[in-house]
Design brief:
Length: 307
């Protein structure tokens, strides 16, 4: 009997140790999430901010308004969704490509490698607000460094373009996002490269395989488990990115750079329609959950087929 009690206590000990973390997770994430879902079913406007619980129930009207793509609200949300999809695909793809290239180039030891790796990680280490504010000054039309180099020094453009308004705002936003994201890809892939035995490259070189063949046949297949996690994390971070466009453009982002995170913020805190903003947030959550589930299912199935 005493032995069974000791076994029961030992079995319960890990769960008891997890209780504080679960309690914090409940307070920080779960309760606000449930509150936001409840708000999405209410007609919560500026008239009920003092006590949002007294706002009348609206059922699915907020969701119908958000998904009515023939109405102005739905059309604006759909445009923001497509802009975010294009922005995310380009940012994740370029960040992965640059990070992979830098990780492979610094894989072998050479003089100054540590200093170069540290320099590569500076964009990731800098505070996001300080970094993006610096970029916003650089993108200024008349006094910014970007136009000074392109127009005054290299003479690549005839007139100084506007980077923070109009269609060029998408390029500016993408540039800052890639600049901030690729060091994380570089750091993750550098760690993954350490697990690849050097004997594989030596054997491939003896067999006559060139550098590109070694990368194609050894490096990329060995990094597949790392890339599966890395691409998912980059996708979720980029699709939900709020700090970069908010600091770069302010409360009103241009149409070409109207990411869905900024769009939801405007719907909630600018137009004071928190019910509609909450409904859009729930729809965004459902979309990201669906994409994550499909991605994990596809990658797990592919891994099982390879095994």
């Amino acid at each position: 009997m005493m032995r069974n009690r000791l076994k029961g206590r030992r079995a319960a000990l890990p769960y008891l140790l997890l209780l504080p973390a679960l309690a914090v997770e409940l307070l920080i994430h779960l309760i606000p999430m449930v509150t936001g879902i409840v708000m999405s079913f209410k007609q919560l406007t500026q008239f009920f901010i003092r006590d949002w619980s007294t706002a009348p129930w609206s059922g699915l009207s907020n969701y119908r308004m958000a998904l009515d793509f023939h109405a102005p609200v739905g059309q604006a949300l759909l445009n923001s969704f497509w802009v975010t999809c294009a922005f995310t695909l380009l940012s994740v793809g370029l960040s992965w490509l640059i990070g992979t290239t830098a990780a492979i180039m610094t894989q072998d030891a050479f003089r100054g490698r540590g200093l170069l790796r540290a320099a590569f990680l500076l964009p990731y280490a800098l505070p996001v607000f300080a970094a993006v504010i610096t970029w916003s000054f650089m993108f200024q039309r008349d006094t910014g460094l970007i136009n000074h180099v392109l127009h005054d020094q290299l003479h690549l453009v005839k007139d100084k373009p506007f980077w923070l308004i109009g269609d060029n705002s998408f390029t500016a936003l993408l540039t800052v996002s890639v600049w901030r994201s690729w060091p994380f890809a570089f750091l993750t892939l550098t760690a993954g490269l350490q697990n690849i035995p050097r004997e594989l490259y030596e054997a491939a070189a003896i067999d006559g395989a060139g550098v590109w063949q070694q990368i194609r046949r050894i490096t990329l297949p060995s990094l597949r488990p790392v890339n599966q996690v890395l691409l998912l994390v980059l996708f979720l971070w980029t699709f939900n990115d709020f700090n970069t466009p908010f600091v770069l453009f302010g409360k009103a982002a241009p149409k070409a750079a109207d990411l869905i995170s900024i769009h939801i913020y405007q719907s909630s805190f600018v137009t004071w329609n928190f019910g509609a903003g909450s409904a859009m947030s729930v729809l965004l959550l459902l979309f990201l959950l669906l994409v994550t589930a499909v991605y994990l299912f596809a990658t797990t199935r592919r891994r099982g087929a390879d095994d």
